[in-house]
Amino acid sequence: MTSALKLYATAEEDIAVISALFQDAALKVSDIAWLSEEKRFVLLANRFVWEKKRWFKKPKGERIRAAVHFNTVLKAQFQGIDLADKNAVLSLLAIEAKSDECIQLTFSGGAAIRLTVECIDAAASDLSEAWDALARPDHDHI
């Protein structure tokens, strides 16, 4: 991997950068883990590579396997997500730091995850090489 993404977040502004990079990431429910004993919340996703602007070469864009994890997580609340349906696919719309103690992940269809944290302490990184996306995300039909 030549230029793998690696970011660390300790402030609300940092979360906004991670959110922009993970917008339209696709993941399965099985790619979500809350490790309560470790106070860590992790998700793996196929993120759309928004930062790569070579659309004339690959008009549908690229995706890459990536992870984002949050440390100091005290509680994770799920809305509109059936944790038993491990193959359900979620589309991540945004990650927001509502405060220094609350981070919300919003998915299409009204699903959400709210994390209560001691402080903002998160990291995001790419895990694979990029591949051609099947389609470019389209927000006109949401």
Q: Can you walk me through this structure?
A:
With 142 residues, the chain is mainly beta. The mean pLDDT is 89. It has one helix and eleven strands; from the N terminus they run βαββββββββββ. Strands 1, 3, 4, 5, 10 and 11 form a six-stranded antiparallel β-sheet that branches. The radius of gyration is 15 Å and the shape is globular. It has one helix at residues 12-22; strands at residues 6-9, 25-28, 32-35, 40-48, 62-70, 73-79, 89-99, 102-107, 112-117, 122-126, 131-132. The chain has one domain (6-50, 62-129).
Give the key terms.
5-stranded antiparallel β-sheet; 8% helix; 11 strands; 6-stranded antiparallel β-sheet; 142 residues; globular; mainly beta
Task: List the SSEs and their pairings.
Blueprint: E1 6-9, H1 12-22, E2 25-28, E3 32-35, E4 40-48, E5 62-70, E6 73-79, E7 89-99, E8 102-107, E9 112-117, E10 122-126, E11 131-132
Short description:
The chain has 142 residues and is mainly beta.
What's the helical proportion of residues?
A: under 10%
Outline the biggest β-sheet.
Answer: 6 strands, antiparallel
Principal-axes geometry comes out as globular
Estimate the strand proportion. over 45%
